[in-house]
Amino acid sequence: MKIGETLRRLRKRKGLSQQTVAEGANVSRTHLSLIESGECNPTIETLDSIGKVLNIPFPILSFLSLDINSIPEHKREDFLEMEPTIMAMIEDFFLKES
Question: Which terminal residue of the chain has fewer beta carbons within 10 Å of its beta carbon, N or C?
Answer without folding.
Answer: C
